[in-house]
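Here is my example:
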Amino acid sequence: MRTLITSLLLLAASPLQAESNWFTEALLNRPDVRKALSSLDERTIVDEWVRLTEMPAPSGQERARAEYVRAEVEKLGLTDVRVDEMLNVSGVRKGTGGGASVAFVAHTDTVFPATTDLKVKRDGNLLRAPGVGDDTGNVVAMLELFRALNRGGIKTKGDLILVASTQEEIGLKGAKHWLHHSGYKPDMFVALDAPSNEIWYGALRIEMVKLIFTSPSVHTLFSRDEPTAAKAMAKAIEAVYDIALPERIEGIGGIRLPTINVGMLGGGTVLNAIPAEAWFTVDLRSADSSTQERLRAAIVEAGRRVADEQRVGFRIEQTVAAEDYSKALTKEQRLNHPLVQTAIGTFNHFRKPGSPPVIPMDLGSTDANIAISLGIPAIAAGGVLFSNPHQMEENAEANSIVPGVRQLIVLAVALTTH
């Protein structure tokens, strides 16, 4: 970890990167920018944040949030406001021309079932509720970014595109659909899906597969010595976890790569018979394509080997397919791009006093992955500070959203007026 951070700090100090940083403190002195930055009211923003958090939106069931976002987008006066068949909501804040177009994207779905208690509890400065950070806080930050630009009367050369995406949590499906079918190909893509003190400029390789074992369904009284999908599943899970992983790469927040996780298990229909089918899912994530492909092959081989040993049937279903990154820019190109360097300059200007410098990481498990796979410069960043995503103990800092939105305002202006 220390070696990785040192290398990134040295890279960030290079003359090339200094030249590609479009953030300047002079932007902060522009009357329109000052007006936008001073227009934020924490109480109003947090009230909306609470309301949206308490609106259930499991992946594939985002309609209520999509309708809310669309109503708010229409108030902004954006052009080409759409809700597509995936329930992605988008609109365009037109520029005057001659500048880069930038998409700001936050996802409306959460990992929590619709029956989850989403009541937000205030604990001093903390907002506690499932989904309050990932990604509800960033949806609100995105809306407030565009509102503040309007309140300040800010005009940009390039277009700013607002996208509230869907089904991010189950394979980045909404963003993928939007990028492939909307007709827009932004010059840059900012996924608002990270804490406001982090910048990710990479794309983890993500793949999810379901390993399914089958056997004749025999009553318990006749099951002795018969092949069973349940036993095969158990042994296959153990075999998958026995796969040797390469040396660990660590990232911000305790991320450890590559990683293999068995997330779901199922099978059987009655208590007193061999299950006709037993299955489990594997979530595989790596930092590079070659490692991902090797580990996927090892997972499949482990399942097939166990099935043969246990004399049961075996098949695989792809639940989230790996993206093709053959068009992606190189690590150096991505790191040196003005999007990344301007984000570094902006976020370090606005970071909390006394906090560590914001260091870009070649990681990413967000909608930005899809843009990167298409060769579009992209980052994952954010407008709020939050902890424990995907856990019932998720929480966010209420007073982080105003400085978070301020840094997004300046980032948007810097990227589209250069």
Observations:
- The CA atoms of residues 376 and 409 lie 21 Å apart.
